[in-house]
Amino acid sequence: MNKYLEQLVELSKYDMQISSFEPQIKAQKTKLEEFSKDALSLKAEINKLEADIKETKSKKAKHDVHLGELKDKLADISKKGIVVQTEKEIKALQLEEEIAKEQISFSNEEIERLDKLQDNKNEALKEAIAKLSEEEESIKELENKIEESISTISTQRNDISHKRGELVEKIDAKILTFYEKVKRWAKTTAVVPVRKQACYGCYMKIGDKTYAEVIKSEEIVTCPHCGRILYKEVEITE
Ligand SMILES: [Zn+2]
Questions:
Q1: Cα(203)–Cα(187) distance, rounded to whole angstroms?
Q2: How remote is the CA of residue 182 from the centroid of ligand 1, in Å?
Q3: Residue 202 to residues 4, 15, 177: CA-CA distances in angstroms?
Q4: In what order do the strands lie in the sheet with 198-199?
């Protein structure tokens, strides 16, 4: 292969590697963000459950106070029962007693219902707290892994950038300018192989004459369809 072309193939490979590092780091960070989102929604769920439990407790306390009042009232009514005389007074007192008893049983039912509700919420809260601690554990693990992986990627990137720099110094200025021009639009596919007589940038078949030039590889050949720099891969025999 022509020396210039060989350099461009190498340069393009470095550029492709360099451009692959950023998405790799981004993918890792996205993963962490997903985990953190889950943890956040668990925290919100826990807050909501705690607020619900608090509210249930305060409702129960109100019923307890009311029950106390009703019991006092009943005691009062039975005291009055000793002193009332007329039929009308007795009836009025009986009605009052009935109402108080109904209110007592209503409050007792409510307390029972709230107790059950509180038990359920407590159970859900316990589960959410356990899940959150699991989630936080995985986040910590993931953070460590990501930190390690990012440091590995950075080392690789520095290494590749260094090699690229050394290569660029050796490349003919005109050839380099031409490569940069193609790269401006073709990004990481400025230099592509020809496979089955087709350009591997635009996937169009190339004519026999151009193909023969690519195989000879005496000079830099570009795809007649898209303009990418073409090369014939060295056959690798296993
Ligand atoms: Zn092409």
A1: 16
A2: 12
A3: 23, 19, 22
A4: 198-199, 191-195, 229-231, 221-222
Task: Give the distance from CA 109 to its chain's centroid.
Answer: 45
Q: How far is the CA of 167 from the centre of ligand 1 (A)?
A: 25
Q: How many whole angstroms from 150 Cα to the centroid of ligand 1?
A: 35
Ligand 1 centre to CA of 228 (Å) is: 6
pLDDT tens-digit map of 28-52:
889 889 889 999 999 999 999 999 9
Which pLDDT tens digit goes with each residue over 199-227? Answer: 999 999 999 999 999 999 888 999 999 99
Res 197 pLDDT > 80: yes
| Domains present along the chain, CATH in parentheses | 3-170 (1.10.287.1490), 176-231 (no CATH)
Q: Enumerate the β-bridge partners of residue 192.
A: 230
CA 218 to ligand 1 centroid distance, Å: 19
Residues 94-110 have pLDDT tens digits of 999 999 999 999 999 99
List the structure tokens of 142.
């993931």
Backbone φ and ψ of 116, nearest 5°: -65, -45
Q: Strand pairing partners for 199?
A: 194
Nearest 5°: CA angle at 40, between 39 and 43? 90
